[in-house]
Amino acid sequence: MFTGFNKKSKSRLLKGIIIFVAVTFALGLAYTGTRIGKPASTDESRPIAVVNGEKITFGAFAEAHQRVLLNQHQQMGDIPPELYGPLRVAVLDQMVQQTLLLQEAKKERIKVSSRELNEKLNQQKAGFSSDKEFKDALEYAGLTVPKLRELLRQQLLLQNLIDKVKAEAKVSPEDVKKAYQEEYKKAPEGPDFEKARPELEKRLKAEAEAKVVDKWFKGVMDSAKIDIFDDEINGIKSAQKGDLDKAITYYESALKRNPDNQYVYVDLGIAYQRKKDIDKAIANFKKAVELSPNDAYMRLLLGNAYKEKGMVDEAVTEFRQASDLGYADMLLHFRLQGLFKAMGKDADARNEEKRIQELQKLMEARQKAQQQQLEQQLKKLQENQQSQKKQQSQEKQQDQQKRQNQQKP
């Protein structure tokens, strides 16, 4: 019996899984030159999880995790260290759920036609200006065309599976009439009812499909046998359930395997902070800072622990270093401004406000420059279009003149 995942809407989870299959490679194709540091090396063939007897290897997990990290970095910038572990949990959860669904697709003999697959592949290619750019992006993402086709096939399999499950949802005319009467407080008849009927049917069908999928997926999850072999992930799952002592045991085991993993020290620090053992929280956050001295958010975590302990001078020192290290991070400066104000450090709070204003001016200047560049590109495009039209018109006139000359005796 599997009970490891939280109880959020399963239909949203399923949608997320289908998106995840695409995100782990499609967004990895968006070449930016950014590289996210790889985790400590491990035996890539070793299972990180086993789902109904099917292995998910550390290698496959690391590959998916790296692509999700890259996506997050592109969208949000630096990832706060306290979110690094939970992000690993989220990626593995998605991979486990994806594996379950692919197993169900196999049981149900769901198929993907060559036409569907080719259309999907062509959609991916259409996002690039040339075949070379597409191949360069594939290489950057660590993919080949056959591997991309397989990922696309999986995405289509999942979508076709969910569509088959949704087909079980039914909405009767009586359901529509009842919904109309409850919503509009009048009899379901006449022009008003006929006008409202299509939208009501659409909404009721979507609700019925969600219920059918929720019930079906709950059965899939409840009957699954899942084992996870990553101490940090098991620790975070234990912490999420409120079992902090068990979480700490897992984290300590993870550090025996990799004593230089700064993110596990962060996990430990947060666990001890939740247990109100601030001294141990500080000790673990300090170790994390030693391993990543230039990480502004590591400094922020340590500073918050010092603040909670009442060690104001030490907290201020860490907050100031965080401010310098994360100079271009506006969200960080907003957080520091609030912390300094709460501590009565008005001069530091004003300094954070000044940095926020400087960043806002930089952002406005950048947006203005981007807008000007966009306008120039649009103007150039319009000029090119006008030039092409003029050339086509001239060619048409020349062609007409040529035909007229040929018709003369």
List keywords for this structure.
409 residues, mainly alpha, Triger factor/SurA peptide-binding fold, Serine Threonine Protein Phosphatase 5, Tetratricopeptide repeat, 3 domains, three-stranded antiparallel sheet, 75% helix, extended
Explain this structure to me?
The chain is mostly helical and 409 residues long. It has 3 domains: 10-169, Porin chaperone SurA, peptide-binding domain (Triger factor/SurA peptide-binding fold); 231-313, Tetratricopeptide repeat domain (Serine Threonine Protein Phosphatase 5, Tetratricopeptide repeat, Alpha Horseshoe); 327-379. Helices cover 75% and strands 3% of the residues. It contains 16 helices and 3 strands. It has helices at 10-26, 58-76, 81-107, 114-125, 131-140, 145-166, 173-184, 190-222, 231-240, 244-257, 262-274, 278-291, 296-309, 312-325, 330-342, 346-407; strands at 47-51, 54-57, 226-228. The chain has a 3-stranded antiparallel beta sheet with strand order 2-1-3.
Name of the top-level CATH class of the largest domain: Mainly Alpha
Count of beta strands: 3
Helix-strand category: mainly alpha
CATH architectural type of the largest domain: Orthogonal Bundle
User: What is the CATH topology of the largest domain?
Assistant: Triger factor/SurA peptide-binding fold
Task: Give the overall pLDDT as a whole number.
Answer: 86
Tell me about the largest β-sheet.
3 strands, antiparallel
Q: What would CATH call the homologous superfamily of the largest domain?
A: Porin chaperone SurA, peptide-binding domain
The low-confidence runs, each spanning 5 or more residues with pLDDT under 50, are 1-41
Helices and strands, in order, run as HEEHHHHHHHEHHHHHHHH
Strand content: under 5%
Shape: extended
Strand order of the largest sheet: 2-1-3
The tally of structural domains comes to: 3
- Cα-atom Rg, whole angstroms? 29 Å
Helix content: over 70%
